[in-house]
Amino acid sequence: MPDHPVTDVLSLAASLQKAAADVVRPSSEIAPSRSEPIVYMALVRGTRGYIERVAHQVNGAYANGWYDASAVMLRRLIETLIIECFEAHKIEAKIKDSSGNYYFLKDLVDLALSEHSWTLGRSVRSALPKLKEVGDKSAHSRRYNAHREDIDKLLREIRDTVQELLVLARLK
Fold first, then answer.
1. CB 136 within 8 A of CB 105
2. Residue 135 domain-assigned?
3. Rounded to an integer, what distance in angstroms lies between the CA atom of residue 91 and that of residue 107?
4. Which of 3, 63, 67, 153 has the lowest tally of Cβ within 10 angstroms?
5. Residue range 18-24: average pLDDT?
6. What's the alpha-carbon Rg for the chain, to the nearest Å?
7. pLDDT above 70 covers what percent of the chain?
8. Could you report the per-residue pLDDT of 105-143, keeping only the tens digit for each?
9. Does a structural domain hold residue 3?
10. Could you tell me the CA-to-CA distances from 28 to 24, 33, 64 in Å, in that order?
11. Which residues, in sequence order, are CB contacts of 154 under 8 Å at separation 6+?
């Protein structure tokens, strides 16, 4: 039985698709976000490369409609910036357990709010628990899926918190 032209074309298309997927793969580097809907890159530019890359992921995930991913990366950014604050003030021992591991975000937020080495602004004091909550739900709740509005309602607080923590961490 001779091969059917449609079958041949489909087989060729499948082979080309597989070959292209093997050759044309995304870079192993984090791609810069094309827009800045959540974290203004001017705030984080020139700080630490890993902070900039996380900010790109917050923005890129949001721009693609991956709101849980954006919220989780935002959570990671806040956690990183709190740690940076304690390290900049040389009091990181306050946020580590007896094995030298950093505490989880809940404890980091509580300790940042009660730290006497700095004063957090009123808006940041109220924002930190909210930012933690949306990130926690996106990371840990099986039935929760973040929506654009969940993040949009926190935009001003995100901006204020990122900037204030960067200043307290002596990165800006």
1. yes
2. yes
3. 15
4. 3
5. 76
6. 21
7. 98
8. 999 999 999 999 999 999 999 999 999 999 999 999 999
9. no
10. 12, 15, 19
11. 127, 130, 131, 134
Domain presence at residue 9: no
Q: Record the tokens describing residue 157, joined without a space.
A: 């607080």
Q: b vs e for 8-33, b when ≥16 Cβ sit within 10 Å of the residue's Cβ? A: eeeeeeeeeeeeeeeeeeeeeeeeeb
Give the global pTM.
Answer: 0.86
For residue 17, how far is the Cα from the chain centroid?
32
In a domain, 6, yes or no: no
DSSP letters for 103-135: PPHHHHHHHHHH-SSS---HHHHHHHHHHHHHH
Place of tokens 């307290």: 168
Domain count, the chain: 1
Q: For the residues of 48-115, what is the DSSP string, one character each? A: -HHHHHHHHHHHHHHHTT-HHHHHHHHHHHHHHHHHHHHHHTT-GGGGB-TTSPBPPHHHHHHHHHH-
Q: What's the CATH number where 67 sits?
A: 1.20.120
Question: The domain containing residue 72 runs over which residues?
Answer: 28-168
